[in-house]
Automatic annotation (TrEMBL):
InterPro entries: AB_hydrolase_fold, ACP-like_sf, PKS_PP-bd, PP-bd_ACP, Thioesterase. The keyword Phosphoprotein applies. Gene3D superfamilies: ACP-like, alpha/beta hydrolase. Residues 12-85 form the Carrier domain. Keywords: Phosphopantetheine, Phosphoprotein. This is Carrier domain-containing protein. The lineage of its organism: Bacteria, Bacillati, Actinomycetota, Actinomycetes, Streptosporangiales.
Amino acid sequence: MSESVADASSAVSRDEVEKLFIDIWQNILDVEVGPDDDVFDLGGYSLLVVEAVAQARKAGVRVKVLDVFEHPTPAKLAGFLAPADEAPARDPAPLGDLVARTWRTSAAPWDAGAPPALVPLVPDGQGEPLFCVHVGTGHVRFFTPIAETLRAGRPVYGFEMPGIKAAVRPFLTIAEIAEQYLRELRTVQPQGPYHLTGFCSGALIAFEMAQRLRAAGQDVHTLVLAGPPVPELDPGLGLNDLFQYLLGTLRSRFGLGGPADVPEVVRKLTDLTWFEEELRPEELYRRTVLWAAILFAQEHYDPRPYDGPVTVCMYGNQDVTAYWRDRVPQADVIRLEAVTTLGLLQEQRFGEVLRLLLA
């Protein structure tokens, strides 16, 4: 599936590459690793693959994240990355230029024909609306039934990536996304006070929107960050790298090995509400490009200190409280037991907090 990366330096032999990855994985996993050991059977997972790739690149070996998922033993990976006269024949990769093709064949997100990002979730109600920003896959409509119970009688609007509904390429920075979403927000509510929440990657977008509203002299009464992430990947990874990282995640976690697996993978993803139920299987790869773009924006966003009221709801397994307290020292930080975004939004405590703030 991945594009050939056998352009590793010809000065590096197959045996040297194999030993390098044995050493890297032994250091990362803290276990004995043999040439034919599958690193995922030994405890490897997506973020550790990123770390292994970063270490290999520092050692002068050009390797991509998806290569590790597709060649999970040191011997197989060395055979793939070895000089051409040693490496086995490889099939061309149909996805190798998908990111570039998406940019060449898609409209800009500010084009007049692009679908709006702002969509009504529960449009009836009284008072200022609650505005919700999508998860990292760009999807927000899953929140509609939850919003019915949390909105305290207010209307609820959501932001979804325009590329969900049409061939529209994404922005690559949180700042650009926030500015575009604010333009649409003001068509519904020109003046504050404002009520904002964002989910996972969308929490960063909501945070930046609040920054800009306050800088414009507006009152942001409610800002709830639901499971905001922190940078944890190599900032040197480009959009292609992150696309392959996500494909690798879909491969290892959901069994995406090729086109025949796509319908079942889509079913699993929609069951988790990572994507909307209407997602057509043939759209999975293009939508993963959009997902990679949000991940790129997330990993390169450095939140400025914020002096307004804010509530940060963290997953039970997140160890990022200090990160957000440094940037928002006055934040009310609440740790919930959930381990997924949907689970967090469904927790009773989250509902109590949001209803209280909106009331």
